[in-house]
UniProtKB/TrEMBL annotation:
<feature type="domain" description="Nitroreductase">
    <location>
        <begin position="37"/>
        <end position="205"/>
    </location>
</feature>
<dbReference type="InterPro" id="IPR000415">
    <property type="entry name" value="Nitroreductase-like"/>
</dbReference>
<protein>
    <submittedName>
        <fullName>Nitroreductase family protein</fullName>
    </submittedName>
</protein>
<dbReference type="InterPro" id="IPR029479">
    <property type="entry name" value="Nitroreductase"/>
</dbReference>
<dbReference type="InterPro" id="IPR050627">
    <property type="entry name" value="Nitroreductase/BluB"/>
</dbReference>
<dbReference type="Pfam" id="PF00881">
    <property type="entry name" value="Nitroreductase"/>
</dbReference>
<keyword id="KW-0560">Oxidoreductase</keyword>
<keyword id="KW-0285">Flavoprotein</keyword>
<keyword id="KW-0288">FMN</keyword>
<dbReference type="GO" id="GO:0016491">
    <property type="term" value="F:oxidoreductase activity"/>
</dbReference>
């Protein structure tokens, strides 16, 4: 984390070692792969409440992600208030109506057809929680001075991936929702100008009749996403 005046390097002995024998490492990562393959993006949520402590802990996992220069250029807003969720839904659907009525272009809309999405976003009010992810384009010290953040999109992407994995570990489901543009979220949630909203994650337990698009189960095989050079 950036602190004004801290510019020197200090080596710290590795505080935690989790090395395993090769056979145990392979068994564990195969088990993790099997569990992560059970992760799905869900649009139908149960009304069952989710304790705030679970949400807080998942966001703490996100905060442990690596980042450029360790500046941690992210902020997460967890919204459980029904009135605020309704305002976010209204703002998102306004942007989505413009998107689906022609702003996206025919090719983009055709690509979304198998997913079954549309301008209406009931999940934004149905889900017990919305987690809004903000990227901090620059930082501000306690005395108001700006400082540069580095690799912001990459860093926020890493943290969001940690968050989604943590939510799945808790047995929760979420949906990666990105209305465009999202500037309205700064005003609704009272976030400063240096923060850019990048994603809304509706979070909760899946509804009894929850479905996912069949196409979402199609994942590229390993040989299409991996090149090994040795």
């Amino acid at each position: 984390m950036y602190r004004k005046g801290e510019v020197r390097y200090e080596a710290l002995p590795l505080p935690d070692r989790v090395q395993k024998p090769d056979d145990q490492a392979l068994a564990d990562v195969r088990a993790f792969l099997g569990y992560m393959r059970k992760r799905h993006s869900v649009r139908q949520f149960s009304p069952r409440p989710v304790p705030v402590e679970i949400i807080e802990t998942c966001i703490a996992v996100a905060g442990s992600a690596p980042s450029g220069a360790n500046h941690q250029p992210w902020h997460f807003v967890a919204v459980g208030d029904p009135a605020l969720k309704a305002r976010i839904r209204a703002g998102a659907e306004e942007e989505e109506r413009a998107f689906y009525s022609g702003g996206a272009g025919d090719e983009w809309l055709a690509a979304l057809e198998p997913i079954g999405t549309g301008a209406e976003k009931p999940h934004l009010t149905d889900a017990p929680w919305l987690i809004v992810v903000f990227a901090q384009r620059y930082g501000v010290t306690e005395d108001g001075a700006r400082y540069k953040n580095y690799y912001v999109p990459e860093s926020v992407g890493l943290a969001t991936g940690f968050l989604i994995a943590a939510l799945h570990q808790a047995g929760l489901v979420c949906l990666e929702h990105t209305p465009n543009p999202m500037k309205f979220l700064n005003g609704v949630l009272g976030r400063p100008a240096e923060e850019k909203p990048v994603m809304i994650l509706p979070v909760g337990w899946p509804a009894e009749g929850a479905t996912v698009p069949a196409v979402a189960k199609r994942k590229k095989p390993l040989e299409r996403i991996l090149t090994v050079l040795r």
